[in-house]
Amino acid sequence: MEPSILVTGGAGFIGSNFIRTWLEESQGSVITVDKGTYAAGSNNLAGLAADRRLRFVAGDIADRGLMRELLGEHRPAAVVNFAAETHVDRSILFPEEFVQANVMGTFNLLDEVRQYWKGLPSAEKDGFRFLQVSTDEVYGSLPLDELPCDESKVPAPNSPYAASKAAADQFVRAFNQTYGLPTQIARCCNNYGPYQHPEKLIPLMIHKALREEPLPIYGDGKQTRDWLYVSDHCAALRSLIESGRAGELYNISARAERTNMEVVSTICVLLDERCPRKSGSYAELIAHVADRPGHDRRYALDSSKLVGELGWRAEESFESGLEKTVRWYLANIEWVTAVADGGAYKDWMAVNYVQRRSR
After folding, report:
1. What are the residues whose beta carbons fall under 8 Å from the beta carbon of 289, sequence distance 6 or more?
2. Crossing angle of helices 64-74/105-118, nearest 10°?
3. pTM for this model (two decimals)
4. pLDDT tens-digit map of 144-174
5. pLDDT (tens digit per residue) in 297-322
6. How many CB atoms lie within 10 A of CB 290?
7. Which candidate, 240, 257, 242, places its Cα nearest to that of 134?
8. Which residues are catalytic?
9. Cα Dmax for the chain
10. Is-contact 315 232, C-beta < 8 A?
11. What is the CATH topology of the domain spanning 5-193+229-256+298-318?
12. Residue ranges of the domains in the chain?
């Protein structure tokens, strides 16, 4: 039997996808802790309840007593930290929540993991990993004429969300440098795929299009993002746990840069083919709205280090990944509806979008 791992934020979008792929490819057990915020739900782990290798615990990574208990009971060989508040727009309106969850939550988790790791036998100590799942947004906006940034680029976060993740990364690095805790930091670009909360661009556009509602595009829609299909991200994280060097930072990118307008236009074409409107194209629903404050113009990552050291490569192109994503959402309308019909989601849409009138 392979050793167990502890996954925090396992009921969220990327965390739940990671758990699925880990259980498919490993014989080890998974303990996952999730606070159960609006973006997480038991439905994200639907179908896994019968797998005895998975234990779900409702809880907060800032609860040091709980984390100490779980680490002592299950003795994981790795901790993968997905737990975070992640939506930039929400961070602009509620920055303190992001500091508490992303900075203080990560610090408290790190300190409990450090105490646990100190007590491990030497052989287990050497193989242990704490993997922090971070974001390209910590690097700040990248000029259009610059090459994608590598791991040497100094962070320059521009949103409260990005600042909170950058601060968490610095604590992870400090615990490696000061205490020797074998940490890793993985900075990925924009993920997409099954089980993503419909506050994010791709599922939001699919959901709104199917309801014949306007498709809100911030500003001119030329903001550029580097897109990564979630299963490719999960494969990269697994390779880091198994073979990545301790104390290192790795970028994860499929080199699939697209503007927001290109993404939304492609979604409209896919929906036109698979679920056509009674008349016209879904593209007719596109509506430009007031831009986000401090909206970064471009993110792009160079993942040559990861590719060179571990041989990882993305299996999905943006086109193939987006087609799979659209097909999944069309086949799982009930999942999206359950989220979108909730009071928390409706309140958020009123706060964030109703105030942004079409330009």
Report:
1. 216, 217, 218, 353, 356, 357, 358, 359
2. 40
3. 0.93
4. 999 999 999 999 999 999 999 999 999 999 9
5. 999 999 999 999 999 999 999 999 99
6. 14
7. 240
8. 136-137, 161
9. 67
10. yes
11. Rossmann fold (3.40.50)
12. 5-193+229-256+298-318
